[in-house]
Every structure is written in structure tokens, then in C-alpha cells.
Amino acid sequence: MSAKRPQEGSGQEVRAAAARALAPVLSEQGSLAGLDEHSVIARDRGLLKELCYGSCRRLPRLEAIAGKLLKQPFKKRDQDVNALLLIGIYQLLYMRIPAHAGVGETAGAARLLKKEWATRVLNGCLRRLQRESETLVAEVDRDESAALEHPAWLLNALKSAWPEQWREVVAANNEPGPMTLRVNQRVNDREAYLARLTDQGLDAHLCLHAPDAITLETPCDVSQLPGFAEGHVSVQDEAAQLSAALLGPAIAPRPGAQVLDACAAPGGKTAHLLEQFDIALTALDSDNQRLARVDDTLGRLNLSANLIHADAAERDWWSGTLFDAILLDAPCSGTGVIRRHPDIKKLRRQSDIGQLARLQAAILDNLWGLLRPGGTLLYATCSVLPQENAKQIDAFVARTPDARVTTPTDVAWGMASGYGRQLFSQQNSHDGFFYARLKKQPA
Prior knowledge:
Blueprint: H1 11-26, H2 45-57, H3 59-69, H4 79-94, H5 99-108, H6 117-140, H7 144-148, H8 152-161, H9 166-173, E1 180-183, H10 190-199, E2 204-206, E3 213-216, E4 233-235, H11 238-251, E5 257-262, H12 268-276, E6 279-285, H13 288-300, E7 306-309, E8 323-329, H14 344-347, H15 350-368, E9 371-381, H16 390-399, E10 403-405, E11 415-417, E12 420-423, E13 433-440
Parallel strand pairs: 5-6, 5-8, 6-7, 8-9
Antiparallel strand pairs: 1-3, 1-4, 2-3, 9-13, 10-13, 11-12, 12-13
């Protein structure tokens, strides 16, 4: 007799969906950016996201425990089964899911992957974890990478760069980031919008550093945000919102200023600049699909920009008109936003950092030639690694005689780091970010 197929919306279905989403991450062939929350019924979407993001957040420890439970690793073609085991471990150690569901539904989900043979393996491993969890966790936690839930190369890089701050950075990386909003000042001020949130029963508080930012006490679906569909508010981290304040002095006195947002997708900073200033903005990105997200964002906010699909390291897209200001939100390791993109722990490699630094340098050199004398370039990354940040800007200034540093020193956020300012992820606050502001000296 064949096994009875679970009903739609069963615990097995959501776990199978999570395994399918995680398998490309584990094989380093994809990321959680493509997670389809609509692959499960509405009631299971929160659980699907928690299983995927939570398992990635704790992955170094989960993989170490899996290694203790298995007699031999799964074959490459069985990364979906491997994902089920990691999801099962995550549920037993970190979630308030009854153990019988964490074990039974996870093991049973293998049938939906057409791998019924794996149900017995998964059931045995997870039941052993139930019996021996304290011993197994203590064993794997002898390795610092497992105990702190970060890849060893990244731990070493953080310790070397930030001997006083690295433990706080690691702790913040291991917790979900808060949901922060950016109030559209063209529509209302943030105190008024805070009152609207309160009326909706959504508790929130004003952020300390970004003047348009509000952080919710508990994240919610954007459909619950008053005026979201009408463009009254957007979701954007507080650190990312600082770019508009940093570019403001260069473009506010120049109505109609020509501004370039290089590497613009998904468009949060693009939109913020257009909400704040009356400018002619060009938004550039090398990824056409991500550029479409910029278009969607601007459409919701009733804003417009010149969108160009092109490489910021090249000039074949440029009309020849010099820009008054350039925002370069450079491609980077994302080590400042690991808590929002925990698959970085699996997908990023130490060798990537040098490659990214060389790309950043090429883009910087290229874009500097598109800036008018007297214009301002703001360099930004969501990284906490000096090779992409302070060292990058140090080297650029050294080889660029007409670059003058104007990064503010009298701000209450971040810390001085070379010619820029470094922010670290803060629990219940902003992400990790780096900013350096440069002015092009007239000839």
C-alpha cells in the first residue's frame, strides 16, 4: 500500500518547500533571494521563512551537529535531504515546535521529495539528537566557528579588523534585524506617521540617526502599514537612510542637479533621494531584473528617474554630461547585513573579498571621471571589512590628486575608520555600513 499523501498545508509540505529552497544554498548554486513564499499556503509562509532564514543563520553549528549524527555525508544529489536534516536540527534546538512534529513532519517530508528512503535516516538522526542534544552541542561547540555560528575565515577577519567590537558584531549577526521604515517626507512627517502606526495598533519608535526612520517593535507584513500602497512609507534600514543626509549638502542648493545612483538596485536609496530633493536622477544597475525592482519602487512612490541597464565600471552608457553628485553603493561582501541575508555565511568566501575590492576600485576610478569639478561622490558599502572600506578609500585618495575627503566627523553614528565612518550591526537598531564622502577639487 502506498504512503498516504499529506493534505495541502500539512507540516510536511512546508518542510519540503523549505528543503527545496535551501538545497541550492547548501550546494552554493543559489541564494534565499529567490525564496517563493507563495509556494505554501498563506498560514505557512511565516514558518517557511523562519525555517529557511533561521537554518542559514545557525548553519555552521547545524552542519557540525549533522556531521556527528550521520555515518556518512549525503551525496550531492541529495542536498534537499541534507536540508531537511538541518531544518529538523534547527527546529529541535531553536524553535518552540513540539518535538514529535519537528521529527515526524520533517522526516515525512522526504516522501514529498520522492526520497522515501530518507525518512528512516532522518527519523533516526533527529531522535538521537532528542536524546543526546546537550552532549552533541557541547562537542561541536569546542570549535569556535560552530559555537559562534560563523565561518572560520569571517571570524578571523572580524577579530583582526575589530579586536574590540567583533564579539558584538557576531552577536548581532546571529539575530534577525528589526523592521525599519522610511517615511516619505513629501507626504507626511515621521511624528505624524508614528501616530498613524499607533492608531493601527503597531508599536514603534523614532530612530536616533536617520531623520525619516521609524523602527517597529515587531515586524509585520507591509500590507498592514498605513499608506504603504500609496507611497507614504517604505521599508529601509536606518544605516542605509543616512546616504540622503550625507549627499544633501551637495545637491540641496542645486535644484535640478544631475545625480547618478550607481549600482542602484533595489532602489531604496534612489527613492529616498527623489523624496528629499528636486533632482534629475540617473539610476544605473548591471542586473536588469534588479533594475525592474527599482522601477516598481519608484512607481509605487510616484517618482521618476532615468533607469539604465549598464556596468558602472564602463562608460558606454554615459551621455557625456558630468554629474553634480554620485552615490556609489558599491558591490560588496554584504558582511554588514548578514542578519538579513544569513545565506552569506554559506555563500561568501574569503577569496571573494579581494575580487570585490578590485571591482570597487575599478568602479571608483571610472565614476570619478564622470563627476564635475566641485561635485561630490559618496562611497557606501554594507560591509564591515576594511579591505572594502577604509583601505579602499585610503588607496583611492592616494592615487587621486583632486579628491578631497569631506566625510563628517561631528555625527553621532558610527566610528571614524580611515577617511570614512564605519557602522556595525546593532541589535534592535541599524545594520553594518560604511560611508566615505569625497569632493572633486576644481582644476
